[in-house]
């Protein structure tokens, strides 16, 4: 049986970029000590979630990829023999910035990057001000331990993105993410939002017959106006929860995934086999009407 141990790092962040990077490295070491072979860090883990405001100074947080953060993490990946999934703010060129995740293999090799395809523009999530939509398409990475697909936060709402990633051969889908509650909201609304977030990602697992690993930040930011809701989780290939993190604590957890289960699930629930690909052309339209 092919089994892989994945580490989920759910943590709080500060204004100090180096402090956050150092902390993440400590957490990667903790995960590796627990047996993790692949460690996923949350979205934009080297900073506070800065997209709550449109501030040109925040572009100074960006860096090249490969660059300083990937250089530091490559050393750690090689030393520990683990794959590291690192979500970073990429400066590609003057005026061109992306929300990007780099993948570092267990020998320290830089395997490449995925640029976030879907960019939100909601109150307190003004990402279109900062990020150019991804232009690398959907990506999978052949690591030492598994072929992994990476999608980022807002991508998590789109079944098309997960489907394409699965069809490219991903054994596991990882979602580094940063999402939270307005602290003025009532508890019922909070729970409804979290349930929707978890449900849509678990549905990707069911529809595609692959495990999903979603890693979210936690803690109060934006001067206390936003509570990032944590709740990181991992599923098996049938969408069953194998691990669920708290809403209010830092956690570093390792979960074992049985990758052979994908073949079993796809044989018994043959959703991929039964797709009517000949009928799907209309999905490329913005909306199906006469215009």
Automatic annotation (TrEMBL):
<dbReference type="InterPro" id="IPR036526">
    <property type="entry name" value="C-N_Hydrolase_sf"/>
</dbReference>
<feature type="domain" description="CN hydrolase">
    <location>
        <begin position="4"/>
        <end position="259"/>
    </location>
</feature>
<keyword id="KW-0378">Hydrolase</keyword>
<dbReference type="GO" id="GO:0033388">
    <property type="term" value="P:putrescine biosynthetic process from arginine"/>
</dbReference>
<dbReference type="GO" id="GO:0016746">
    <property type="term" value="F:acyltransferase activity"/>
</dbReference>
<keyword id="KW-0012">Acyltransferase</keyword>
<dbReference type="InterPro" id="IPR050345">
    <property type="entry name" value="Aliph_Amidase/BUP"/>
</dbReference>
<dbReference type="InterPro" id="IPR003010">
    <property type="entry name" value="C-N_Hydrolase"/>
</dbReference>
<dbReference type="Pfam" id="PF00795">
    <property type="entry name" value="CN_hydrolase"/>
</dbReference>
<protein>
    <submittedName>
        <fullName>Acyltransferase</fullName>
    </submittedName>
</protein>
<keyword id="KW-0808">Transferase</keyword>
<dbReference type="GO" id="GO:0050126">
    <property type="term" value="F:N-carbamoylputrescine amidase activity"/>
</dbReference>
């Amino acid at each position: 049986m092919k089994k892989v141990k994945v580490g989920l790092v759910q943590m709080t962040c500060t204004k100090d970029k180096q402090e956050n990077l150092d902390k993440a490295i400590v957490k990667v070491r903790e995960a590796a000590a627990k047996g993790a072979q692949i460690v996923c860090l949350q979205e934009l883990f080297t900073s506070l979630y800065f997209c709550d405001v449109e501030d040109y100074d925040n572009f100074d947080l960006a860096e090249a990829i490969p660059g300083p953060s990937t250089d530091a993490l490559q050393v750690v990946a090689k030393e520990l023999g683990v794959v590291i999934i690192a979500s970073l703010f990429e400066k590609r060129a003057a005026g061109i910035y992306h929300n990007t995740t780099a993948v570092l293999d267990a020998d320290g090799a830089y395997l490449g990057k995925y640029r976030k395809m879907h960019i939100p523009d909601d109150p307190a999530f003004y990402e279109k001000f900062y990020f150019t939509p991804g232009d690398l398409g959907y990506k999978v990475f052949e690591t030492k331990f598994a072929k992994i697909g990476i999608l980022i936060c807002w991508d998590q709402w789109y079944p098309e993105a997960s489907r394409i990633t699965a069809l490219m051969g991903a054994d596991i889908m990882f979602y580094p993410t940063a999402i939270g509650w307005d602290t003025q909201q009532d508890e019922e609304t909070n729970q409804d939002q979290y349930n929707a977030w978890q449900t849509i990602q678990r549905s990707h697992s069911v529809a595609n017959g692959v495990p999903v690993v979603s890693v979210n930040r936690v803690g109060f930011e934006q001067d206390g106006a936003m509570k990032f809701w944590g709740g990181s989780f991992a599923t098996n290939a049938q969408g069953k929860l194998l691990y669920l993190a708290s809403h209010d604590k830092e956690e570093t957890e390792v979960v074992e995934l049985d990758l052979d289960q994908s073949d079993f699930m796809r044989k018994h629930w043959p959703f991929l086999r039964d797709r009517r690909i000949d009928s799907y052309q209309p999905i490329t339209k913005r909306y199906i009407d006469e215009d």
